[in-house]
Here is the input.
Amino acid sequence: MSLPVPPSPAKLVIGMFMRDTDLLIPVTAMLEEQYGPVDIVSRWLPFDCTAYYEPEMGTGLRRRMLSFKNRVSQDELPRIKQFTNAVEAKHLAQKSRRINIDPGYMLPERFVLATGKNFSHRIYIGKGIYADLTLIFHGGAFHPLPWTYPDYTRSDMQDFLHKARNKYLFDMKSAQAEKASVP
Here is the structure.
């Protein structure tokens, strides 16, 4: 018989893309107020693998990735996505998004994104939100799946995700050692 085991806490990773990069500062402040300090920030990455968002957001979009120091429960992902949707809504211009915020989480074996869009490979996780298994990790590398967004396969994105994963593993090991040392 398989007995339920509570899942490990996950590393919160949030990607944002926008044309007006000045939005990064106030949006990051809102995210940190809700989820605690950011511990890793990517450099600006081009967001040029799709034109899907251009009618709403324009051209010249750029992406920045953030990972957060505080770990989150995996079942918080729907609430996190609802919060980031509200942040997007606060920054609308003429009913169009100026920023797109994609929350997800990192575990040693996978990277998962939250989305409001259903599709055959996405699992409903509540509150109108689906989990998208974006990358799996094995053999020392992240591996895309047939539906993985192309920008998550780029080397600059992979570099950031490796840093976030390594920080997560270090923090988990440190927390275990600290817990073991307490009488």
Observations:
- DSSP finds four helices and nine strands in the chain.
- The mean pLDDT is 96.
- The first strand starts at residue 10 and ends at 18.
